[in-house]
Amino acid sequence: MQTTQPELATGRKQSARHSRLVSAWRHMKRDRQLLILFIPCIVFYALFRYGPLYGLIIAFKDYNVYQGILGSEWVGLEHFRKFFDSPDFWLLFKNTFLLGLFTLIWAFPFPILFAVMLNEVRSVKFKKTVQTFSYLPAFLSVVIVSSMIIDFLSPTHGLVNEALKALGLEAKYFLAAPEWFRGIYVSSEIWQHMGYEAIIYLAAIASIDPTLYEAARVDGASRFQMMRYITIPSIMPTILIMFIIKSGSMFRIGYEKVLLLYNPMTYEVADVFSTYVYRKGLLETNYSYAAAVGLFESVIALIMLLLSNRISKRAGGRGLW
C-alpha cells in the first residue's frame, strides 16, 4: 500500500515531536538536582506573581467587596474611559514619563562609568574599600533613604542648608520647590543604586580576555585607549541587556520614595501613576478604578520593554529574546 504525501508529513511531525520529548526528558533527568533547587522559585512566582493576575478582572468590573470578584457587575472599559477623560491623565503621564526618562538618562550611565573607572584602579585595597562603601546604600530601605534625604535638605537643621548659611546664602526648602523635586529624586536613585549595579559591569569586565590588554599594551596603547577600544566594546552586550531592562521599567516608578518625598506643593511634578493608584485604591477604596490605572501602567511598561528590545537588536544585534 502506497503512503500518501500528507501521511508522510504527519509521520515526520510526530517523529520530530517524539524526538523533542525524548531530548527534553533526557535533559530533565540529567539536570534533576538543579530543577529540584528551582522548585521554590517556581512556587514563589506562581503564588505571588502569576496568581494575583486573576485580580485584574476587577479593572473591568464595578468591584464590591461583599459580592466578590465574580459576583461584581461587569462594566467593561468604563474605568479606562473615565481615567482617560479625567484631567489627571496627562499630568500623571507627563510626570511618570519625565521622571522615568531623567532617571534612565542620568542613573543608567553612572554604574557603567563607575565600574570602568574602578577597574582602572591598581590598589586592590582601595578598590575593595570604595566598592564596599558604594553598594552599601542599596541595602538601605526606601524609608531610611527618604528620611536621610529629608534630614539633609531640612530648611532648619539640614546639612545642605547649614552649608548654604555658612557661605552666606539663604536657606531653601528644597522639597517644597517643584523645580527641585526631579533632581532630588534622580540624584537619590544614582546614590542608592550606582554601586550595586556596578557589580554587574565589574563581573562583565572580569570576563574579558587579559591577552587583549597585553597585546594593546605591547602596541603602545594608553589606558584610556584600552578602556575605549577593549573594555567598553567587550561589556556592550551587558550594557544593552541592562538598557532593555531599565527602559522596560521606565514607567514602573515605585510609589514608596515618591510618596515619602512629595507633598501637595510638588504634586504638579511628583504625582505619578503608582502614587495615584495608591491614593485611589487604598485611601479612597476605589479598587476597580485603581486596578484599571495600574493595568494601563503595566501595558505601557510592556510596550516600552518590547520597543527597547527591538531597538537594541537593531542597534547592537542583541536583545533579551
TrEMBL record:
CDD domains tied to this protein: TM_PBP2
Name the UniProt record assigns to this protein: Sugar ABC transporter permease
Keyword annotations from UniProtKB, A to Z: Cell membrane, Membrane, Transmembrane, Transmembrane helix, Transport
Entry's transmembrane regions: 34-60, 97-118, 130-150, 198-216, 228-245, 287-308
GO-annotated cellular components: plasma membrane
Superkingdom of the source species: Bacteria
Protein species of origin: Paenibacillus oceani
Membrane topology reported for the UniProt record: Multi-pass membrane protein
GO biological process, one term: transmembrane transport
Cellular localization per UniProt: Cell membrane
Coiled-coil residues: none
InterPro entries, alphabetized: MetI-like, MetI-like_sf, UgpAE/MalFG_permease
Record-stated family: Belongs to the binding-protein-dependent transport system permease family.
Domain ABC transmembrane type-1: 93-308
SUPFAM superfamilies: MetI-like
Pfam families documented for this protein: BPD_transp_1
